[in-house]
Amino acid sequence: MKAEIITIGDEILIGQIIDTNSSWIGRELGKIGIAVVHRTSVGDIAYDIIDALNKAKKRADVIVITGGLGPTKDDITKKTLCNFFDTKLIQNEKVLEWVTEIFARRNLPMIDTNKFQAMVPENCEVLFNKNGTAPGMWFDVDEKIYISMPGVPFEMQKIFSSEAIPKLKNKFKLPIIIHRTIQTTSIGESFLAKKIEDWENALPAHIKLAYLPAIGQVRLRLSGHGNNAQNLAEEINILIKKLYEIVGQYIFGEEEDTLQKTVGAILKKNKKTLATAESCTGGYIAHLITSVAGSSEYYKGSIVSYANEIKINELGVSEVILKTDGAVSENCVRQMADAIRKKFKTDYAIATSGIAGPDGGTNEKPVGTVWIAISSETKTTAHLYNMGDNRERTIHRTANEGLELLRRLMIKK
Q: Which of 122, 139, 171 is the last residue of a domain?
């Protein structure tokens, strides 16, 4: 079973927005055994949309379209689909009722532009949009399935998950495919591959391994194909158990886990609290931690001590240390971590200080030099890294490593 994704919108082609819809749809289709074989992006031009549809139907069984379903003149997808299928727009009463209710709830007038959202091609089945006014549409034509959805990600995702996926499962006899993802950190892709080389070479032919690297992390995705879901799941479980035995110290979670979620879960479980003192990361660690719902239960706050006077006045870092060792030093970052933990009365603290670049490096402390300290009630440790010469990657890697150092400390207790 093959699929093609078509994204519509000038804003994608000119780089004004990033197409995250295609990657999300591809993952969701893969979970049910439908392989994406092609992705196409076109502008808001009817001829180009029809050309993309004609090409897609020759190489795919399922064509998923996003974008161009808004109420303005540049949203031409519905009219173009009518031309493609040689049909006309009709009013869908259920959609009209829903759109009317939305505007009434917001105390806004129901103008003709908004009423147009209830107009859909006559030959489609409506996929209800509970998060917006533009409905999704399902077309079953000449043994091909066309799914058209709005481009707004949270609207598209809800429609696809709750409406389109169940219909695809009901329409086709799909293969059994099981994906499992293992999240690793603090080890590069090539080093990880070397450590699990024998394990990987012994994988059966029906189970494939993919390496998915990101800044400071590598995801390992196992994809198994089989005829019996239970047997396949058990086989993958055994393989993952062996993987933990080989590289368990680098594994922090599975599937959609993030380090901040994992660290937060450990803190919450143990009823412990955390504070951060950040210099080179500029509050990025705090941002990651607070992006997790419920983080207020264990995270107290942060001081972004970017300037030396803030390190001195707010964290009590010694002026002597700053003059002799410098802000990017073991002694400085240790004092930062101890001070923030005591100041905020927490169980743990993370502190960072480094040279993110592109300027500021020296022979002794080149760009990318970073110190990270972890403080607890019993001890404080400091760790030296060179994170490379890219500012953004240095910030991300430092935040990642700080969270990982804390995770490892907590799971040893």
A: 171
